[in-house]
Amino acid sequence: MNFQDGSLYPEHQDPLVITCAPYGPEWMPADFPEDIPVSMKEHVQKAVDCYNAGATVLHLHVREPDGKGSKRLSKFNELLDGIRSRVPGLVLQVGGSISFAPEDDGQVAKWLSDDTRHMLAELNPAPDQVTIAINSNQMNVVEQMLPEDLAGTSLGTPEGYRAYREMTIPAGPEWVEEHIRRLSAKGIQTHFQLANITQLETVERMMRRGVCNVPLILTWVAIGGGFDAPNLYNLANFVRAVPDGAVLTLETSMLNVLPVNMMAIALGLHVRCGIEDNIWTQDRKAKLGSIKQIEQLVRIARECSREVADAQQARRIYRIGEFYGSAQETLAKNGFAPNRQASQRGFVQHALAA
Q1: Most buried among 90, 166, 323, 331, using CB within 10 Å?
Q2: Cα 185-187-192 angle, rounded to 5 deg
Q3: Does residue 347 carry a pLDDT above 90?
């Protein structure tokens, strides 16, 4: 992305899209009972509350009545239907893992099978987005967490810590291409969750081959443990590699969430918050629920005079419902250089839309 003179001025930036992940599949309800929804009614009400607080994208997981993460797509259908009836403008983003929470005590957190995750394209009502990981990767979400982050929670137990320390993401190239094809065929947008710049390069190569004709709507997930660490150098390197036509959200974990989101607000990027990412105030003297996290970001955005997107603006910025017919159009719309033609020499400057 290019940052010309005036790029930091709010009048030159898109309204801020706030994504909230309020369902926290890695936590157990006892970790934060006043904020973690368990019943379907509570799940739907949490979505309404997030929207009313200022979030326009909702990252979905769902729980069974016993509080464990649900792996039943019928539960997702029920939640999607309930939210659509209450807040039809909210951008609904289903987590591509479905639920990585261990099914039983002592088991390792695990993403579901390739075939099961393909079934996300069959959800009814269809979500607006499904998140997708690129390239199989370690996802040790506790690696950069401190003992203070985990104190008094299920992740602070030996079995809970081990379960999430050993988690991996299966996302091989054949599965990824087929998944994008199925989502696109159903009018569901692919939202890329990228761990580092090499995964961004893989997405670009797919677009150049014409097997990924979608907008580059992506999140930089800086959580360590196989993903980038949330520091200024990694952030700047990743942002520099993202083309100008992309839409970039920043995501990290625990006490890194607020400072990284403050940088996103200042840079004209977009933010993600919620208890899936962090449950603490910055001094760790209290837990901080998803609604309070949204309200905090709205206040900071207003202090920076940056408008917060409403639902209609978020759908426009995220290009919901937009798909492309060729590699050439995809490259042009996302701001990549065109594919090099035979015998073409020198630097290729920019892509032209079909």
Answers
A1: 331
A2: 95
A3: no
